[in-house]
Amino acid sequence: MLELRRHTDDDQALIAAYRAGDDTAFGRIHERHHVALERYARKVLGRSSEHAEDVVQEAMLRASRALRRDDRHIELRPWLYRLTRNCALDELARVRTDSVNFDDAEDWGVVRAPAATEPDAVVESRGKVRDLLGDLAVCRRSSATRCCAGRSTGSPTPRSPTSSASARRRRRTSSTARAPTS
């Protein structure tokens, strides 16, 4: 416990010296903590542990900038571990998103767009949709004609997918088209 307190006091003195402009103080901070931080970074990185030195170097760079930025009190050791963990997680995210093997990428669909979005496939599917819509329009017209043909004015209109306004219009035109018989 006494040893830990002495390191904490020494760390605070080194932080104060570095903030005052003594660059060698940060070198001593690095010497004191880099081995343990690299060991910790290897644990966090797992299979990507070959990047542990880079992670610690990035954490130390961030620490040097932050220590000069303000004069707030910092418990150095836990703060350095937190910085190292954050840098290691950043590295894992970078490796996950930046490292795609091109041989595997085509199998995953990363390099090539899905076949349904290829220009020829899109044009073909649009054509099919237009044909279906055209067939639907013809079908609706023919069913409306069958529905209204030969019906007297007073007969009830069966339900159809047309609007009531268009049904009234059809009734009106069909009743005026028939000439009264005398």
Short description:
By secondary structure, the chain is an all-alpha fold. The chain has seven helices and no strands. The protein has a domain at about 1-100: Orthogonal Bundle (Rna Polymerase Sigma Factor, Chain: A).
Question: Mind explaining what this structure looks like?
Answer:
With 182 residues, the protein is mainly α. The chain has a domain of 98 residues: RNA polymerase sigma factor, region 2, helix turn helix motif (Rna Polymerase Sigma Factor, Chain: A). 73% of the residues lie in helices and 0% in strands. The chain contains 7 helices and no strands. The longest helix is centred in the C-terminal third of the chain and has 30 residues. The mean pLDDT is 78.
Q: What attributes characterize this protein structure?
A:
73% helix, mainly alpha, Rna Polymerase Sigma Factor, Chain: A, 182 residues
